[in-house]
Amino acid sequence: MSSKDWEAENYYSKDFDWEQLREEVENNPSFQFHFLPFSPNQIADQDAEEEAHQEDSQAWDQFHARHSTGKFFKERRYLLKEFPELASCEKNSKVLEVGCGNGSTALPILRGREDIILYACDCSNEALERAKHIVSAANSISTIHRFHPFLCDFSTTGFPSLLSCNNCSRDFSQKRSSGFSGVNSSYEINDVNPVCPDETKCCIGGTDFVTLIFTLSALPLDRMPKAIKHCFDVLKPGGLLLFRDYGLYDMTMLRFGPDRRMGYREYLRPDRTRSFFFCLDTVRSLASAAGFTEMELEYCCVKSVNRRNGKIMKRVWVHGKFQKPTCT
């Protein structure tokens, strides 16, 4: 067995009980500031709001510029174990990876299925350049040709019509209204609308999967509902949203000091990038409000060891799978 296979097969997600961690944290006086009421300053006008959005993108540009070396890249090899649908999907299935970063998620998806087509976006040009370099370095012509990166801040502008034009969106709604069913409860996704019905073929006809892997937490809380709705709109009926992000009481949350709070469970790192920590109810509410049906939702609780000091770190992530209904 290769080291890659060993790592994937020995990935665990239930190393400790989340409820027990919650009790420990909430009863620890040194963590009480995390639970205090918070009144964030309101953005005064649209110009200030736009400036804040630009600062978010600039912060991530600077982040990826600082971490442009190979040491920062860590391929998420557990991905296909956690989301096996990506490896067993139909031929030529289309995936939209939102917030692709340096390509750590793109590469295992492309390697896991030789005919999958991956569209990947990020708000950072630096991130996209790094992702393109990582995928190109894989030395696979097939992988390069199936990878389509593009610049996009989906939380403010939505996705380009290349993914789903107005004609396709109307077509999705008509099929839902007529009771069309292209997928069953075991997540088998059919090619509902393989090509744009418009004679100009201006779009790909929607995607079969959208992945949100450690992306939503980087947004301000007030932009999350619209961001999730954009993901819903670009999926074909029966398509899946695959979600993974920081969970409440994760080790990184507990490391933030009081001066780093931006809101309830919202924090600002020294490099000006944001981080939000989700509970299951928050993710459930966001997905439900957008129109998704919940398929899986749970905490992943993993113990890891700091190699420098031998300290055990308790990591908490939220894992979820949500489906766009095939009919109303």
Write the layout of secondary structure elements.
Elements: H1 3-9, H2 18-26, H3 46-66, H4 79-82, H5 85-88, E1 94-98, H6 106-112, E2 117-122, H7 125-136, H8 141-145, E3 147-151, H9 154-157, H10 166-177, E4 207-213, H11 224-234, E5 235-246, H12 251-255, E6 261-263, E7 266-268, E8 274-276, H13 280-290, E9 293-305, E10 312-323
Strand content: 15-25%
Question: Per the principal axes of the C-alpha atoms, what is the gross shape?
Answer: globular
Text of the CATH class: Alpha Beta
Question: CATH fold name, please?
Answer: Rossmann fold
Q: Biggest sheet, open or closed, and with what strands and sense?
A: 7 strands, mixed
Structural class of the helix and strand makeup? alpha/beta
Give the N-terminus to C-terminus distance in angstroms.
46 Å
| Number of DSSP helical runs | 13
Major β-sheet strand ordering = 3-2-1-4-5-10-9
Query: Which blocks of ≥5 consecutive residues have pLDDT under 50?
Result: 1-10, 42-53, 177-194
SSE run: HHHHHEHEHHEHHEHEHEEEHEE
Q: What is the number of strand segments?
A: 10
Q: So, the CATH homologous superfamily?
A: Vaccinia Virus protein VP39
Radius of gyration over C-alpha positions, nearest whole angstrom? 20 Å
How confident overall, as mean pLDDT?
80
CATH architecture: 3-Layer(aba) Sandwich
Q: Give the tally of structural domains.
A: 1
Provide the helix percentage.
25-40%
Organism: Erythranthe guttata (Yellow monkey flower)
Protein name: tRNA N(3)-methylcytidine methyltransferase
Pfam families: Methyltransf_23 (PF13489)
Family: Belongs to the methyltransferase superfamily. METL family.
